[in-house]
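Before relying on records like the one below, remember that each one covers exactly one chain. Contacts with other chains, cofactors or solvent are not represented anywhere in the record.
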Amino acid sequence: MRSLAQVLEVAPEVLAVIAKAADAAHPCETGGLLLGWWDGGRIVVRHAIEVPDPEATPTSWVRVENTAQAALDEALDRHPHPWLGYVGDWHSHPAACGASSQDITSIQRASGQYEQPLVLLVHRADDLVEAVVTDSAKHTLMHGTLSETPEKESS
């Protein structure tokens, strides 16, 4: 079986952006989009952009589609790269808990629109980042916790 590190590569700057946004939004959740590309069976994540939800609470953040599309368009203009595009979502949990069943269902549903897998990153209050990689509406490909060094990631 493949490890999380073989399926997912996340730039350190992505984790820094997510941690900073989570800290600023605390005690409420926040979230956004992950930008990157697919390369030989791996998801390469290079940018995280925040998509504010004015209705966010300590237990929910909802991606507002119009706001998300505008943020995506602006990010793609700001970071011109021929392969760069949407590869998943991220959000924070102000508690030390990972992806909920609703979170997983949501990213699985979104993955039905893509030929490649999508990723969900959940920043937890204990500063761990949980990753869920899914390739269909009913199949989670990989689920684990990111560490600062990819060789130590768990699956």
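The longest strand covers residues 31-39.
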